[in-house]
Specification:
Immunoglobulin-like, alpha+beta, globular, TATA-Binding Protein, 926 residues, five-stranded antiparallel beta sheet, 54% helix, 12% strand, 37 helices
Length: 926
């Protein structure tokens, strides 16, 4: 571009030829003055504006402040010429920050370029939005970027840029993006034929799903299906094979995305996922000589191992992974060692047994001295996670030895982890005190206040530990030099429990005073204040050294530090009181035990660990810590829901007395989607509740039919999905929503395909199991692209009567059981109007057909009235067993009424069967 603008080329050449900075500044000042003059005079054509703005940009890039060219850059964005528009966008992204007032002037121009049919203009606008990313721009243009992403006419490279732009906006301003509303439409793009688009959209879905797990749950099936196509079926373009590894970046992202969700319960997804993970591990068993191939393969393998650990730590796949990891942590390649240690830490944080990891304990300890600090940090994390009662002394001892030579960047984190492990796995009080005081002595400035605070809490709350702690801390203080944290611990412990050792040789009150006071001259004012509190405690318990202590108080009464001076004056006044004065004894009473509390060390360590945009699904510290973390997350969610409910209740109670009727809250769509309604839809569903096959839904685009069969508590439902239009239904997604998964299980036998060809039909089998009594049928949710994005949710005709089986009863048996069950509440009855057939007679065949369709056995010659129907059946449930049900249907031709009575040992079963049987027999309301 500079070659087309000779003035810009000459300006750059002059700058580069300047021998000293003064000449460079002189040339720039001259040029800026000329540009100001030109801009002030106006009458510049597009080429001249472009040239002068380019000079301003070059000057800015050199590091000089510029205060001209902003308005001209805004004008250049509206130019129809690409070269001028490009310079305008470049100037906007470089010269303007996200809160600049000039940005408000370019929003309409950017929106116009987003709406343009020129893909180049679209891309320039997307670049500008992503680079600037201000809140105002996000609010104004997020909808336009989303539209460009989901538009079927957008080119692949535009979709990629739109997805990454939306990701940038979400990371900076998540409140602006309606993530839950856009979930299905964004997820549908994961079926795009271009793997580059899929990579970018998956990155966006990863960020959105972390904060909105339920709305983006459908992405799980999409991710598994895409992985199977890449890894097992090898469906990918040759351009996306990186050293024979199919799109490793996409594989890693998909494997990481799956770890955000709990392990799948759908057998078809489990089977496909197992096949994918097995194939990845088998492909990576033999290393290649090509470094790039190994790097790509290892990246995928380690993420696959992490997913296998996340799904089930006891699976054979994890056993195979443990063997591979043992080989990787001994590798000569730094990256492989790093990934091996990190993944093994994941295994240690989840596994029930640490035996496979403990076999590599010596290698892991040697990794603490690796030449690369990142590997050393991962080794530290792994040792922290794999520590338990059996190996705690060995690991803590190694960490203490390594602490003396460890990097300064690691020491603070090491101190926290050593302190936590020492407290958590202490086998004896002696070992705990010896270790923690050695830690404080050797770590020096890297010991945070949380460490010695925790020591004080534990010693105070453990009576058996106090005498030994006083003796050991005194021995440490006798050393020539001590860190100030140890002086603080010594001051507190000796002040509270020094009297327990005062009668032993070498531990007399005067010895304790001399050793502790000799350290005070090297301490800061805060530590000296603590030591003054120790001295006043000694005044109460050691009257023989009271004169020396009073002298100290007298001396400190005249220091400049306000805190020290105030304490000294108060303590001096207390010390002057008579020995039998109760005030001194009350003030100097022994500290009571601290209330039980969670260790502050863990909170401090979590702060040190930090977080990234890609949040981990686990933390270092072993299985217990991860279980505690999950429990804390659930508790937080519950507390948030409770607080929201209580706040809503408070608000409603504050409105008492106003003449308003609060609207009922809508049911959460995250739990059950909103089902399609309509006369035909209801009629199709009702008919299929007592028929084995038929049409469930139909419109101009799609037809859905079902065919079913049931045996006991198990059933199989075939769903036929027909495409009625001459173009394919793409990005097809199907999911099942069950209101009570503990009562009813409905799963696909295989993952639904992502495309339905024009004018063809596809069959999907569903496995059904009735575990307990249920009343709400499951919902089938479909999502697909047919010109535009379509979503459909319909009820599946899976009702409780599908799990009935016939039972044969004679008249005596039937009426005997009828009487035993008795009346309400185990009886349900309804009287409703009926229609007569064309000749004015009762439609007896229909009554029989409905009862038989609901899998009830119509018993012959039971009722003396031939028009009445008597039926019986047994409901099969996997968990609750079998429940009997008896029914009597009594139509009255003259009154055009029918009475149905249902009796069952289960009140719920009686009511549900009555509702299902009577619905198809009633007169339809006009």
């Amino acid at each position: 571009m500079a070659s087309n603008m000779r003035g810009l080329t000459q300006f750059i050449a002059d700058i580069r030829s300047a021998r000293v900075r003064e000449l460079e500044e002189k040339r720039i000042n001259k040029e800026m003055a000329n540009i100001r003059k030109k801009f002030k005079d106006g009458n510049l054509d597009g080429y001249q504006k472009k040239k002068y703005v380019a000079k301003v940009i070059f000057t800015y890039i050199l590091g000089y402040k510029v205060d001209v060219g902003h308005m001209e850059a805004v004008n250049l964005i509206s130019s129809p010429k690409y070269s001028e528009k490009q310079i305008g966008y470049l100037a906007v992204t470089l010269l303007m920050h996200e809160n600049s007032d000039f940005l408000r002037l370019v929003v309409n121009s950017i929106r116009k370029d987003l709406d343009s049919n020129n893909e180049v203009d679209n891309c320039l606008a997307l670049h500008a939005i992503a680079n600037v990313g201000g809140s105002e721009m996000a609010e104004a243009l997020a909808e336009d970027v989303h539209r460009l992403l989901i538009s079927p006419t957008s080119q692949s490279f535009v979709k990629k840029k739109a997805a990454l732009t939306l990701l940038r906006l979400y990371r900076k301003h998540p409140d602006v993006i309606p993530a839950a509303e856009w979930a299905l439409r964004i997820i549908s793009i994961m079926d795009d034929e271009d793997l580059g688009v899929v990579v970018c959209v998956t990155s966006l879905v990863m960020a959105l799903a972390q904060d909105h797990l339920t709305p983006y749950a459908v992405c799980y099936t999409k991710a598994v299906d895409r992985l199977r196509k890449l890894v097992v079926e090898h469906e990918y373009a040759a351009t996306y094979a990186y050293y024979k590894v199919p799109s490793p970046w996409l594989q890693v992202k998909l494997l990481r995305l799956l770890q955000y969700y709990p392990p799948p319960e759908d057998p078809s997804i489990q089977e496909a996922l197992h096949e994918v993970l097995t194939t990845i591990m088998n492909n990576s068993s033999e290393p290649s000589r090509n470094v790039q191939h190994n790097n790509a393969q290892h990246a995928v393998l380690f993420e696959a191992i992490s997913l296998a650990i996340h799904i089930d730590t006891n699976s054979p796949l994890v056993g195979t992974a443990a063997v591979l990891l043992a080989r990787f942590i001994s590798s000569k390649e730094t990256n492989v060692r790093y990934l091996g240690l990190d993944t093994m830490a994941h295994l240690a944080a989840r596994a029930d047994s640490l035996a496979p990891i403990k076999k590599q304990q010596n290698i892991i300890i040697l990794s603490l001295r690796d030449k690369d600090i990142s590997v050393r940090r991962r080794a530290l994390d792994l040792l922290y996670s794999m520590c338990d009662v059996d190996n705690s002394e060995l690991i803590v001892g190694e960490l203490l030895r390594y602490l003396a030579v460890a990097d300064y960047a690691l020491r603070e984190e090491m101190v926290l982890k050593i302190a936590i492990l020492t407290e958590k796995y202490a086998t004896s009080y002696k070992w705990y005190i010896d270790t923690i005081l050695q830690l404080i002595s050797s770590a020096g400035d890297h010991v945070g206040d949380e460490v010695w605070y925790r020591v004080v809490q534990i010693v105070t709350n453990t009576e058996d530990l106090q005498e030994y702690a006083a003796r050991v801390v005194f021995e440490h203080l006798k050393q020539p030099s001590n860190h100030e944290s140890l002086v603080k611990v010594g001051g507190y412990i000796l002040g509270e429990y020094g009297h327990l050792i005062a009668n032993e040789p070498g531990y007399s009150p005067i010895d304790q005073f001399r050793v502790l006071h000799n350290k005070s001259q090297y301490c800061v004012a805060a530590t000296r204040s603590l030591l003054l509190s120790t001295y006043i405690k000694w005044v109460n318990v050691f009257p023989e050294i009271k004169p020396q202590l009073v002298t100290i108080f007298e001396r400190y009464r005249h220091v400049l530090d306000a805190e020290l001076q105030q304490r000294a004056c108060e303590f001096y006044a207390l010390a002057q009181r008579p020995e039998d004065d109760e005030l001194l004894q009350n003030v100097c009473e022994e500290m009571p035990p601290f209330p039980p509390r969670v260790s502050a060390l863990l909170g401090r360590l979590n702060q040190k660990q930090g977080d990234t945009n890609d949040k981990r699904t686990w933390v270092h510290g072993g299985k217990e810590m991860n279980l505690d973390r999950e429990a804390a997350k659930k508790k937080t969610l519950t507390d948030n829901n409770s607080s929201s409910a209580s706040e809503a209740q408070d608000i409603m109670s504050s409105l008492t007395g106003l003449q308003i009727t609060p609207s009922q809250p809508e049911p959460s769509e995250d739990v059950m989607p909103r089902v399609a309604v309509g006369p035909n839809i209801d009629r199709w569903f009702d008919k299929l509740t007592w028929n084995a096959e038929g049409v469930l839904y139909e419109d101009v685009q799609i037809q859905i039919g079902v065919k079913s069969r049931y045996q006991g508590h198990i059933g199989q439902l075939a769903v036929y999905l027909g495409n009625k239009i001459p173009s394919p239904l793409t990005s097809f997604t199907a999911s099942i929503h069950v209101s009570d998964p503990e009562a009813l299980s409905v799963t696909f036998t295989k993952i639904p395909p992502s495309t339905i060809a024009p004018r063809t039909q596809m069959q999907q089998l569903l496995q059904v199991e009735c575990k307990k009594m249920f009343t709400t049928p499951p919902v089938l949710s479909l999502s697909f692209l047919a010109g535009s994005h379509q979503t459909l949710s319909i009820r599946l005709p899976i009702v409780i009567t599908k799990f009935f089986e016939h039972v044969k009863l004679g008249a005596n048996d039937f009426f005997e059981r009828w009487k035993i069950i008795g009346g309400p509440p185990r009886e349900a009855q309804q009287v409703f109007p009926i229609e007569l057939d064309t000749v004015g007679q009762l439609d007896l065949p229909k009554y029989r057909q409905v009862l038989t369709g609901h899998r009830l056995n119509v018993l012959e010659e039971i009722d003396p009235n031939p028009n009445n129907n008597v039926a019986a059946g047994i409901l099969n449930m996997a968990v609750e067993g079998k429940v009997g049900c008896l029914l009597r249907l009594e139509p009255n031709r003259e009154a055009k009424l029918c009475r149905v009575t249902v009796r069952s040992t289960s009140e719920e079963v009686a009511k549900e069967v009555l509702k299902l049987v009577t619905k198809p027999l009633q007169v339809s309301p006009s």
